[in-house]
Amino acid sequence: MHRDFSQIALPGRIQALWMLLAFSIAPELSFAAETSESLDLTQHWAGYSALFIFVLAYTLVILEERLHLRKSKPVIVAAGIIWALVAAAEVQIGTPGIAGEALRHNLLEFAELFLFLLAAMTYINTMGERKVFEVLRAWLVSQGFSLRTIFWLTGLLAFFISPIADNLTTALLMATVVMAVGGSNRQFVVVACINVVVAANAGGAFSPFGDITTLMVWQKGMVEFQEFFVLFFPSLINWLVPAVFMAFAIPKAHPPALDEYVALKNGAWIVIGLFIVTITMAVSFHNFLHLPPVLGMMTGLGLLKFFGYYLKRRDEAVLSFLNQQSSEKSGGHPQPLARPFNIFEQLERAEWDTLMFFYGIILCVGGLGAIGYLALGSQFMYVDLGPTTANILVGILSAIVDNIPVMFAVLSMEPDMGHGQWLLVTLTAGVGGSLLSIGSAAGVAVMGQARGVYTFFAHLKWIWAIALGYGASIWAHLILNAELFQ
Fold it and tell me: For the whole model, what pTM was predicted?
């Protein structure tokens, strides 16, 4: 199965998305926690109603694939209802206006996330349109590698590309290679797709830009940029342990190479260079100038738009010449030719459902925090159970529920725990989604790509091996980074 990767939008149940997607959980979120302490609504009718609304909305999100209902719709409605309930309760108690202030802080958080994601998605879409991903895919399928070599190559590339790009895009790219090479070999396609999903999620866990949850922790200031890389070996173990077991299930076959060649479009390398410059600006603005990283991303988007203007004018000149040549050959009736490059078309292809989903989730979780439920959760998990147990459970929970609201809730609770524990929850939230096919954006996207072959139950057969990797990665972090827990 061949697929034009330039047409792949960043879909679905993103755990978001790109490894370059960031957001800043600002200290102002503690305002919601303070509000919840002074106005505990957890036993109030408004608190019970808000919790019911959130559970109902998130149930619809989980059933997205079955209901074909975009995930943003229920959470947007739920967010409005939850904050209306909070405000109504405060009016009844006699303290109106507090909810409005807390809501404004949540909206500021969403604005930063929205703009960062929009810039990141536009870059990814532009690189796809310039055939960057398609060239890599074509090279892999044309080399005539054995199935076992493809299994290890796609896993290795997924592990090392996802920290720079993102786990979703990387998994889609590698799954396309797996399906092109595997063809009708169902056994190989299933195992290789699982391997790609696990590797992409593991690779994203040791980089600030590898997963949205790592970006949350970095932006919050819990872990410095360079400190994430101590998770490299635990993340590597998380992928290698199940990969070693799964490799024995790969058939010994050597399929013929596919005769395919794809050339990069004009300006592709410059787009890649601008992408690197934009990442550098986002990191530098945050680390050295103490400015929100979104400023660096939006500045980089502006540079991409300038280059897009050059590409458009160049294409217009080329197309004008070709139209003239075609008109002369056809007696004044030129044949229709391709349209010139338009940067706003790449911007339009951003995953708007995902962007709106984040709006709903941020406001829903913020509303529950204002009511006081996050304070209760923090007490139970990080005081009663202890931080290590709690952080391990966060990873398991992220396999069932999207890891974005889980990590958002943890950061909003802001439990008092050491540096090693913050790295642990970063690791578990990043790799825990691999336990189930629906536990990560990469898994959901690949299920759509290999529909009917890579399924929930096909993935479930290997959960024992993935769970071993999950446990081994936690053990490795506790041993290798023991000094961080002191």
Answer: 0.77
CB 232 within 8 A of CB 204: no
**Assigned domain for 169 exists:** yes
**71 lies in some domain:** no
For 470, the domain range is 104-321+342-484
What residue has token string 């330039």?
Answer: 6
For the stretch 187-245, pLDDT in tens is 999 999 999 999 999 998 898 877 778 877 887 778 888 888 999 999 999 999 999 99
Q: How many CB atoms lie within 10 A of CB 92?
A: 12
Residue that the structure tokens 């399924």 belong to: 455
Q: Judge whether 406 lies within some domain.
A: yes
Burial class (CB in 10 A: 0-12, 13-18, 19+), 36: buried
pLDDT in tens, 390-431: 999 999 988 887 777 788 788 878 888 888 999 999 999 989
Joined tokens for residue 157: 């590339």
The greatest distance separating any two alpha carbons of the chain, rounded to the nearest whole angstrom, comes to 83
Number of independent structural domains in the chain: 1
At residue 379, the 3 state secondary structure works out as helix
Q: Say how far residue 248 (Cα) sits from the centre of its chain.
A: 30
Residues 25/408, Cβ–Cβ less than 8 Å: yes
Domain membership flag for residue 91: no
Cα–Cα dist 234/476, whole Å: 5
- How far apart, in whole angstroms, are the C-alpha atoms of residue 81 and residue 9? 31
